[in-house]
Structures are given as structure tokens and as C-alpha cells.
Amino acid sequence: MRPTCLAFVFAAGIAMLTSMGLAQHSPNASPYKVLKVAKVGGEGGFDYISADVENRRLYIPRSGAMGQLTVFNLDTLEPAGTIPTVKSGGAVVDPKSHHGFSTTKPITMWDASTLQVIKTVDVDSRPDGIMFDPYNERVWVLSHTPQYATVIDAKEGTVVGTLDLGGAPEQAVSDGKGTIYVNTCVDNSCPSHLAKAIIAVVDARHMTVSAHYDISSKGTRGSGLALDAKNHVLFSYLREPSPTVVIVDADNGSILATFPTGEGADTVAFNPATMEAISAETAGTMTIIKENSPTKFMVEQTLQTMPGAKTMVLDTKTGHVLTMTAEYGPPPANAPPERAGPARGPMVPGSFSILMVGK
φ, ψ for residue 273 (rounded to 5)? Predict the structure, then answer.
């Protein structure tokens, strides 16, 4: 994941969706809407958002000098506590042991019930992404430097192994039965025509890579990854040469379909109750892909949210999608452009907001 200093490309993303995706929309499109915007404020950058659905908690880590782990009620979005000493980009919770983990270096392990730090866990990497796998109660810490995963036992808080994924890992998903899929970006520093987009297939029990699915024919710079575990369908989101979701057979890596998405999809999710893949995008949109069957898909809706809302989490109990962003002032004079678009100024104080999206 990239930090939220990424700039927005709102108009271009909307124009692309209009020109490329409109004909694929359902006649009954637009079932989703922004249900609530909670302006919660707070200092520090932000990247990942996560939820403990069973215990109804929403976790938003804040990075930087004023950063902390912030906790909210998943139903009301009211504040539910903080861990002031934990400044990171991501966090997950094991709902059984109530142990939480944040992507500090070393990793910080904390008690989700008391919000007290338990201990730190040394990892030989620079933590970026993080995922909890319910299959064997393990936390997967994903790193770009070096390009591998560190696996931690969530109950004990001990490292059980590391795994070279064959590329810089972005989002990982588990089928809950012992297989993990990881979207990776190979040769991330290379020009786009030399880079590759590869999905790593991982045996979670033995911590080995069993296959690599190369989908580079459809684009590069992999980011979000979602999984329909029942029908074994992957939704892999690519950034270049244009924002695209590549739908893949999880059993053999064959490509089933592709669709355009909004600019800057980062984290994504699949809702098995509605058979929809949902992506949050920096451009200020969400793209909802409907799975009508394991081989038939369509763009159901493009929803306008807010620029910068590029990461999300699905509340599987309510079907709500939670995302977050902030407002920014004008850039300083002669400021260089950001990596993904024009420069922007500092965050407007008190403007950081959580968005709840649903039907």
C-alpha cells in the first residue's frame, strides 16, 4: 500500500468509467449510497482500516508524530478508545484470543479488550500490509523490503516463519481452509512494460508457495485482491496502464473477465451475501462488480464517495462498507507533483472522516 500522500485523479477516473464502463452497468444500478459520514478528526497519516466484526470494533491506525491506534464502534462510528503509543499503517485482531497486532517495527501486540500493549515482536522486514488468517489463527505481515511475509501465531505472539512470495506483496486473502492468495508486484522499480502482476498461491499450513498466476497480459502494479471462496474466484486489481480488475479462476489462474475501475483502488473485498466485489478508489469512487455466476460478471455500480477514500473494510454482519479520507488544502507554490498526480497541501485540521456505505 502507498501512504495517503497519494494525490487524487478524480476527474480522469470518472471520465474513464463513463466512457468504458457505462454500457456494462445493470439497469437497476445504484443500490449503494453513502449512509453516514463521521468527521472524527485526529492527527497523523492513514493507510489501512480494519474491523473486528464479531466484537463490533473498527480500527484505524494513524501514523506520523501525532499518530496512534484509534478505535471506533463499528455500528455507530463513535470513538471507543485509543492506544496512544502505537503509530502504524495497519492493524488486525484475532477475535478469539482478542490479541491485536499493529505494523510497527517491531510489531506491537496488544489486548483488544483493554487496549493495553502486551509486547513487541521482532521481524526482519519493514512491515506494510497485514492480514489475519482464521484457518490457524495466524497473522501475516507483508513487507516490500524484503519482499516476503512474516507469519505470527496470534495466540502466542511468536514468529512461526517467513516466506518469500516472489514479489512485493500487496493485499492478501484467505479462503479459511488453508490457502492464501497474495497480489504481488514483481520488479516494482522497473518501467511498466517490464513489471509483472502475479498472484502468489500459498499453502498456509506448510507456509510454501504452491503456484504463481501471471496476469501481466492485462496490466501491472497489482494492488487489492478479493476472493469468492465458495466459487473459487479471485478479483485482482491492477493500476497500470489503466485501472483494471482482472477476474481469475482461483484453481488454475485462468482469466475469466476484466473490467475498468476507478483510479487508485487499494484494498478491496468480496461480499458472499450479495455476490459483489467492491473496491475503494483514490479518485473518490467505489466500483461494485456483480458476480451473476462463477463465469458471468458485470459492473453493477460506480458510487461517488470522497477523494482519497482508497482503503476499505467490509462489515460482513451488516453488509456495510467502511472507508476513510480527509480534506486537504492547496499545495505550496512550486510543489513537485505526487507520485500519482498533482501535489496537494496539508490536511485540513479536524477533517478526517469515516464513511459508512451500504444499501
Answer: -75, -30
CATH superfamily of 10-358: YVTN repeat-like/Quinoprotein amine dehydrogenase (2.130.10.10)
Quote the CA–CA distance of 227 and 173 in Å, as a whole number.
Answer: 7
- pLDDT at residue 51, rounded to an integer: 97
Give first-to-last CA distance, the chain, whole Å: 28
Which string of DSSP letters, residue by residue, matches 56-115? Answer: TEEEEE-BSTT--EEEEETTT--EEEEETT---S-EEEETTTTEEEE--SSEEEEETTTT
Task: Kindly give, in sequence order, each residue whose CB lies less than 8 Å from that of residue 88, ignoring residues fewer than 6 positions away.
Answer: 61, 63, 67, 69, 102, 103, 104, 108, 127
Rounded CA-CA distance 97/155 in Å is 6
User: Cα angle vertex 358, ends 354, 359, to 5°?
Assistant: 155
Write out the three cell numbers for 66: 501525532
Q: Which helix (H) or strand (E) holds 260?
A: strand 255-260
* Of residues 187, 86, 88, 82, the one with CA closest to residue 129: 88
Q: Are β-strands 312-314 and 127-133 bridged in parallel, bridged antiparallel, or unpaired?
A: unpaired
d(CA 156, CA 172): 22
Q: What is the per-residue pLDDT across 344-359, written as a single tens digit (0 to 9) for each?
A: 788 999 999 999 999 9
Q: Which three cell numbers stand for residue 310?
A: 482508497
Q: Which of 114, 82, 87, 120 is nearest to 98 (CA)?
A: 114
Q: Hey, how many other C-beta atoms are within 10 angstroms of the C-beta on 298?
A: 17
Q: What is the pLDDT of residue 345?
A: 82
DSSP state letter for 190: S
Contact 264, 283 (CB under 8 A): yes
